[in-house]
Amino acid sequence: MRDFIIPQYPPGDDRDMGTPAKVGLPVTLIVDGIDVTVPEGTSVMRAAAEAGIMVPKLCASDNMEAFGSCRLCVVEIEGRRGTPASCTTPVMEGMIVHTQSDKLRRMRKGVMELYISDHPLDCLTCAANGDCELQDMAGNVGLRDVRYKAPEGATLLNHFAPRDGVGVNAHYTPKDESNPYFTFDPAKCIVCSRCVRACEEVQGTFALTIEGRGFDSRVKAGAIGDDFLTSDCVSCGACVQACPTATLQEKSVIELGTPERSVITTCAYCGVGCSFKAELNGDQLVRMVPYKHGKANRGHSCVKGRFAYGYAQHKDRVLKPMIRETIDQPWREVEWAEAMTFAANKLRGIQEKYGRKSVGVITSSRCTNEETYLVQKLTRAVFGNNNTDTCARVCHSPTGYGLGKTYGTSAGTQDFDSVEQADVVVIIGANPTDGHPVFASRLKKRLREGAKLIVVDPRRTDIVRSAHVEAQYHLPLKPGTNVAVVTAMAHVIVTEGLFDEDFIRTRCDWDEFQFYVDFVSDPRHAPENVELLTGVPAADLRAAARLYATGGNGAIYYGLGVTEHSQGSTTVIGIANLAMLTGNIGRPGVGVNPLRGQNNVQGSCDMGSFPHELPGYRHVKLPDVRAIYEQAWGCEIDPEPGLRIPNMLDAAVEGTFKGLYCQGEDILQSDPDTHHVAAGLAAMECVIVHDLFLNETANYAHVFLPGSSFLEKDGTFTNAERRINRVRKVMAPRNGYEDWEVTQLLANAMGAGWHYTHPSQIMEEIAATTPSFAGVTYDVLEEKGSVQWPCNEKVPDGTPLMHVDGFVSGKGHFMVTEYVATDERTGPRFPLLLTTGRILSQYNVGAQTRRTENVVWHPEDVLEINPHDAENRGINDGDWVRLASRAGETTLRATLTDRVAAGVVYTTFHHPATQANVVTTDFSDWATNCPEFKVTAVQVSPSNGPSEWQESYNEQAERSRRILTAAE
Hints:
Elements: E1 26-31, E2 34-39, H1 44-50, E3 76-77, E4 96-98, H2 102-117, H3 133-140, E5 182-184, H4 194-203, E6 208-211, E7 218-221, H5 238-242, E8 248-250, H6 251-256, E9 261-266, E10 275-281, E11 284-290, H7 303-307, E12 322-323, E13 332-333, H8 336-354, E14 359-363, H9 369-383, E15 388-390, H10 391-406, E16 424-428, H11 432-435, H12 437-448, E17 452-456, E18 465-466, E19 469-470, E20 473-475, H13 482-495, H14 501-507, H15 510-520, H16 527-534, H17 538-550, E21 554-558, H18 560-563, H19 568-582, E22 591-594, H20 601-606, E23 613-614, E24 618-619, H21 623-633, H22 645-654, E25 659-663, H23 667-670, H24 674-682, E26 686-691, E27 703-706, E28 715-718, E29 723-727, H25 739-749, H26 759-769, H27 778-784, E30 786-788, E31 832-837, E32 862-865, H28 867-872, E33 880-885, E34 889-896, E35 904-908, E36 936-942, H29 948-960
Parallel strand pairs: 1-4, 14-15, 14-25, 16-17, 16-21, 17-20, 21-22, 25-26, 26-27, 31-35, 32-34
Antiparallel strand pairs: 1-2, 3-4, 5-8, 6-7, 9-10, 10-11, 12-13, 12-27, 18-19, 23-24, 28-29, 29-30, 31-36, 32-35, 33-34, 33-36
Helix pairs in contact: 8-25, 9-25, 9-26, 10-19, 13-16, 13-17, 13-19, 16-17, 22-24
């Protein structure tokens, strides 16, 4: 099986070199009289390209293995008979190659004639005119006339349906317009198979095939009766990008024309951090194309990053500031100056009345590092307190705590390239095919090469079993029992002597290890003794532990299914213990890797968004750390930690917290126990929402500051592998300001006197005050493309792999992981366990993706329920059901599936009409207050439709979003 191989290029070189780069001993050959030295295994085609000689091609592309079907790339090699295809011919020492001769020109022209004979000659009106490889190659070989035509009776692959009896012996094959983002025109297909191979080798979905023979052959999506929308196609765009004609074409290009310029930027969706070329006509964005030099995505993409950018131009965007005195009043549009004066006066008045700690901020994991840094600076340097929190704590703070305690740093250990050297991959509480699809494609490629997979998840996700990929072990644990499963795996490794003693003696604290061994060896942690608790068969758990410990390079990837628990921090510690036990840390192919949910979760944490930590994870109580910022900011820093979001809401209900600046977050939809969040917001006297849209939190806001999308700003994001990527302004901010400028306006209205003129100056301040960012500048990022922190004098090129020679903390620390059951228990009233997650087409609270065509795939949240539980309750597929917990209730439609075990139900939280978090409780992680989204005791029963609460909520939301017109 051929698979995607990462291409390598000189920096900035976007040429398609035809075939992938290879690694090997140098080989020297002569191509058209030019000496070329390339690694052994390199194709003649690529060797020629390295010499600046581009051999004509149609079926070849450098992100796929050579195919050799088009016969356009033939060359002559001295001493060898015939004209071999240069894409499939490896170089040899001393080889002499000729890419141009009369014979080759005649052959290539003949090949092109055959292709063109079955292709409509409508170049002037074709959407790919000027951006078509077939057109380019026809010109390259000098084709000016076509002598052939399709045989009588062959399938009429034409734009125009037969009429008036014409073509009665043929049948018309129409365009497939089913996909909302691209069209498939079989009339223009040259059957080069590039789209099929891209779907297999790059994406790993295997949704496309070639059906028919000769002139009747064509690309087919899915099975008989399927189209691109109903097939397994995940709309990643790999096929569209691979297509050399207009067969597969973005609808945006058809509508807006071929783009004329491009800007390289970073995707603002998940934590993979894909690089894209935003291609434009003037300031009109035409398409987003994955950038082949992007070190996180290597030229691949998913449906969200590739196509779901239309929200930036959506009619719902608010572009003018708005204010109101009370939340029952309609909004009134004002100018920026009036909005800032209004907000500043409100906040100053609150602090004068209730004290300086009565206000706070919430930073965003969707905004840039520079913007997030300024928001936490606002509360510390202007408000005079540490009341700053972020959704990064709401989802991944146990990562920071657990890895900080065991390894000494609060981030993942590897880069994404590392997965290609993994032999055993453990996925715990993560769904990469939906939540991190570009990484999942690289993972699936490695699995197809023979790596083994262990999945620990209460739900059977796609990675457990899908096209050409199947996990060796799926451990379907009961929600809330992560710690018991991880500790049982450690029990097997320790009691069976499978641990790496040399690594532990050299790299870890041996005394702590001895104490840990005494704990984990206790028979109560044996798989057989926790089977009833976890629901995982003891034999499977033992076998999985043995595989991880003995299968070679073992890598662990985990997600919110680990962290969003009352014992989230304990589970992260347990995962860190497993890696240390087996020596799977500090080299390629191993490690502990959190998969971050949003684009800048890592950066939001790095920038000091927590109430107890300044940037760089340094505690606010430390005088030497405070002194750095007191000198830089010219103010005194409060040594007392501030309030987390739930503490802010509690204090608001109690009457001591009265003002909030919330940038880029929608806590009413995303945070647990919606009723409590609403009560806290309603009790505040000034809520400032800074966002693109009037979100659910804005229902309770007094000031709305319009935000700018990622396309309208400069800055940086930090992805899940600690990679700092540039975000570049593609177009001018539609609201007039980038988000960092809005924060500066508010700070200055409060008397701050900030004078930043560009985000690069903010990064200079970050680098000057944060050791792990000391070597990061915009010039460095422009030169290197991206860097992974730590980046400083010791490691000026950044740090792809952490803990190579030793842990940041010196010695690795084993810690006891005692299982403590959550206080959220099932019982007669609430016998089922609800767990929540995401889906491929939607993102977080859906504010962006719901305003794109992605709603075609997921128009509403649904409840997955096992058929056994549904039958017991008289529930059929598609029925409305009532989902109730101790905290609240909502209604949604049911989907019957065996993806979830009996006793477990699952839903997403992308649509505010459902408000899934109205049923989640306020239980949280013992160390970080990370909410326990993944374990809620519920009951499910038939319903007639939306609940009274949903109807009243929708009515309140509509009233809250009234905007006065100019006439009013």
